[in-house]
Amino acid sequence: MGDRIVVTGGTGVVGSAAVRALRAQGDHVVSLQRGEAPPWMSDLGVEVVRGDVTDADAVARAAAGADGVIHAAARVEITGPWAEFERVNVHGTRTVLDTARACGVRRVVVVSSPSVAHAGRALVGAAAEPADAQRARGNYSRSKAMAETLALDCDAEGFAVAAVRPHLVWGVGDTQLTARIIARARAGRLVIVGSGAALIDTTYIDNAGTALAAALARAGDADVRGRAFVVSNGEPRTVTEMLTRIARAAGAPEPRRHVPYPVARAAGLALESVWERTDRAGEPPITAFLAEQLATAHWFDQRTTRQALDWCPEVSLDEGFARLEAHYAGAGSNC
Amino acid sequence: MSAGPTRPARIPPPDLPGLAPEWSRLVEVPGAGTWHVLERPATGVPELTVIAVHGNPTWSYLWRRLLATAPPTWRVIAPDQAGMGYSERLGDARPRRLAQRVADLGALTDVLEVRGPVVTVAHDWGGPISLGWVLGHRDQVRGVVLTNTAVHQPEGAPAPTLIRLARSKPILRAVTEQTGTFVRGTTALSRPSLRALRPMDPTVAAAFAAPYGDAASRVAVRDFVADIPLEDDHPSAAALDAIAEGVRALGDTPVLLAWGSDDPVFSDRYLRDLLQRMPHADVHRYERARHLVTEDAQACVDDIVRWIEIVGSRARVASSAPREGSAVPVTRPIGAALESRADDPGVAIADLRAGRSVSWSLLARRTREIAAGLTELGVRPGDRIAMLVPPGPDLVATVYAAWAMGAVVVAADAGLGVRGMRRALRSATPDHVVGIPAGIALARTIAIPGRHVVVGARRVPGADVTLAEVARVGRELGDDARGLPSLPTSDAVIAFTSGATGPPKGVVYTHERLCALRDALRAAYGISDGTSGRADALVAAFPPWALLGPALGIASAIPDMDLTDASTLNASTAGRAAAAVGPREGSSGGVLMWTSPTALRAILDTAGSAGPDERAALERLRLLLVAGAPVPADLLARAQEVMPEAVIATPYGMTEALPLTEVRLEELLGAQSSDGVLVGRPLAGVDVAIAPLDSIGRPAPAASEEELVSAAGVTGEIVVRCAWMRSRYDRRWATQAHADSPPGWHRTADVGHLDGEGRLWVEGRLAHVIATPRGAVTPVGPEMVAQAVSGVARAACVGVGPRGTQSVVVVLEEGDARGLELVDIDTTIGVRRAVLRECGVDVAAVLRTAALPVDIRHRSKIDRAAVARDASRLLAGDLEVADG
């Protein structure tokens, strides 16, 4: 029998990938989550503890006797009030770390985001720069930057903490990015911002899971603890190619229309302010941040990550597209 | 003049960029006040002391990178001269004179107890001061480094305009003392960061100006300018003259002249003057660098350190040994065939551009006359003559005349473009010029001191004699006029690299190298000059090769074409050229054609429209040589249909060494591979080896032959050796030092590998190697695969992103592209899949463009660096563009 590992947010996109990866290597997995266990979790034999990461008692119930924690729970919406991001992402992370340490857990990996170190310029073969809450764009990135910084500051002898920043996770089971792209493509509303030529790194969902598992296994290593690692497939592609091939895999119309970047950014700014002032539900169809992301290169130097974590992605992009296509072919068009 | 203001010496502020506070100290110099001196001590007893002397109006800050870079075994001393920088302001009533400044420097080295071997490094007016010190300390000096300086006003040369301006009495005080114009102006003259073309970092410019913030601190700046002896009766004239004459005796001391090519103060004429005094000096001319060459040329300080390391480690006795070489003339001079056919009435050169033919006898006579005439008109053996004449009988006669009388031909061809030609000529500093009127006009934009010979009916502005007049002068002298026989090691020609990846570099061939080239070509291609009954002939469809015809003893034809655009050749003009020199009725012998891939494509594309005689002449060609860039096999296969008799071969080589290997069509057809371009087996007498690449694409330094490999399948820089390769680079000491590794070899900067049969495959240029996270990727393989799968004629494979983690991008050339843009997804997937399968390389993106940038000379070498820059910009996304 493997180690006893707690995953917070085990039903989320990255959390579920971590749960599967840990189970696949034979660990006993405890998922701390707010909702009920979905069937796949029961099928995998995952132990579920119901609760919120901001609730120290709930965290303690899950972490008792655990060897390691992967902290994936987070508020990931693109917009929303700062207080909510701060409560979940910053205070929640502090609670998880404090409680885990108190429970005698020796290794923690927090899931972070490359946006914590991104001030808006193109990232071309970039290294994992330190998180910078001052310059991070938007409430989500700022809260994640604060969370990562406080988490890595907790790293100490006997309590190893590392951060993993998976970049643009997509694939079968991703209800965030992948499902939204496909929904928009089906509605004929998927557009390409600017030239669509910006190179971006992405991460097939299963690879994010194995990277987290690898990081947790090696969190105590001198070249891992206290550090942050960007994780991606290491296969940069243009934004146009990623959007087109995801739409194509789902049998949805491929994006053809281009919206000039300044127009998209202006639209994003306008819609954000409308959403904020009218308190509308859901998210605006585009934000300035999203326009920026879609029109700017983001790809990373993966050499340090792969060497330190002794990990490499098992699912290539081509294999990922094939899996996505098989999934949609089998599931019909009701997803 | 009253006494000036005084101020004690100071330590510079601690925050000047690049300056370590621990280097600064104050030293009492007898008779010269207190000096601020930068000193980087050696660990232990110094192997060597470097004394670095700044000029005016800079200070020791100029040498900060020298202090930072010098090996720990050296002691490096860089003083602020009396009254300069942070040294004491002495309140001198009179300018401090040159002789005094030399004495001051000696006093400083005495106080600092400088013992053992010394190398001096100096800039600007620090040059004469350092040389004055050198002449007084000959037994200690192991080497002399001078950067943009002067010891003498060259004959007939105006003083540097800026200095003369600053010296005019009303202006002197205003610009040098009362305002900071001169101080600020000097750093404004800098052109650092050659690639980025940014102005000097403002914090560095401010550091240069820091000690000269007010008029009182600038008195010595004024006095320094006032002490420049522009007049014979100047108080410092005698001292400067003594130094200028004294350096002529430095023949046993190594000298490096590290020179910014674009210095508006100390221009190339001062370099020429220094070289005339110290002909043994090593020179490196940094293209586009200006007065502050150590600031402008990133590599300059590193090169100086390397040079000092080499001369410092050399035993003193070795440096005074005579230079390598022989006093015995070459046995069969390069013009021997011309002499031996002096009575032959047959065609030597058929110039179809000008519509005239010249016989061997006429060519030989004209060559003799011009040689005699040039000698009579003052051209000396060793003088450099710029030849700005298109290929044709006049060029051939003048070139062979120059060789006959021992002059050096500077061959800047039109293929460099006008800007490239001007850069090339300036770098070679010719003593004379022979040119058509347009060439004379070009020569007027650079200073050429000697004869200006125009090829044309009458003198034009800037020309002092016509070529016909030169010949007449020679003719009138009769047979008495003979040049000196050529020595094997004397320079014969300076050719230029095409400058596709930077300014053209001068490449020097000596007579023995040229003769070896002639003999290698004869042997490799069985060229027969008629002495054994068979007379071959040459069609120079790459016109500069017409120059080789007389050396080989075969007739040559120049087709009617635009010399700057190989694609203007066609089957009719090529056929007519072949017919013009084809074997006469009843005689055997064949016609060779030497062409570039672009010219060949133009011939083949128009084969259908050529007349029957023209076609017939092409059909009878004996040998077709295609060189200048990688040649696709299908192009050669098409050529075989038009030229069924011809042996078709493509030699591989470069301006520095050609030919090195060759491959024939049959072998090329059987050897399609994605590993690169097969260029074939080394010719007899050529050694080819590989300096392996490391994981981020850097070749092994290979200082010795043992580090080179010839094992099959190892990719690295191609390193070659043969008797007919270049002797050296011209005035590029550092380039030369790099290329000569291991000694006696030439590093080609091409990458490739040898196969199991000893055949060489070229995979691209070293500068174009892509350093991906999975190792080095060479571009040619992926390009060939991409061409094959997408059906385009030309593709470029480049890297974007930082070295070591670069992404691979393929750019297809498609005529209907609008700027650089993405190809459709299916093409992207198709190219990526094929390249992954054949080369094991992941292609991140596939782009297209209407025309890939190529070099001017061959129109076929892709400038992948430019492609990479454009691709990087596109793939960075819109935000970068929006931000400017």
Describe this structure in words.
The complex is a heterodimer of chains A (335) and B (884). Helix content of chain A is 43%, strand content 16%. Chain A has helices at residues 13-24, 39-44, 56-63, 82-102, 138-153, 177-186, 205-217, 239-249, 261-278, 288-294, 303-309, 317-331, and strands at residues 4-8, 28-33, 47-50, 68-71, 107-111, 123-126, 160-166, 169-170, 192-193, 199-200, 203-204, 228-231, 237-238, 258-259, 298-300. In chain A, strand 1 (4-8), helix 1 (13-24) and strand 2 (28-33) form a beta-alpha-beta unit. By secondary structure, chain B is an alpha/beta fold. Among the domains of chain B are: 19-157 and 231-316, 3-Layer(aba) Sandwich (Rossmann fold), CATH 3.40.50; 332-343 and 353-504, Rossmann fold; 769-884, 2-Layer Sandwich (GMP Synthetase, Chain A, domain 3), CATH 3.30.300. Chain B contains 31 helices and 37 strands. The longest helix of chain B is centred in the middle third of the chain and has 17 residues, at 360-376. Mean pLDDT of chain B is 88; it is low at 192-198 and 316-325. At the A-B interface, strand 13 and helix 8 of A face strand 36, strand 37, helix 30 and helix 31 of B.
Q: Give the CATH level 1 class of the domain at 4-173 and 203-232 and 301-315 in chain A.
A: Alpha Beta
Q: Helix coverage percent of residues of chain B?
A: 25-40%
Kindly report the average pLDDT value of chain A: 90
End-to-end span of chain A in angstroms? 36 Å
CATH architecture of the domain at 4-173 and 203-232 and 301-315 in chain A, by name, is 3-Layer(aba) Sandwich
Keywords, please?
heterodimer, A: 335 residues, alpha/beta, Rossmann fold, 7-stranded parallel β-sheet, two-stranded parallel ribbon, B: 884 residues, GMP Synthetase, Chain A, domain 3, 13-stranded mixed β-sheet, 8-stranded mixed β-sheet, 31 helices, 21% strand, globular
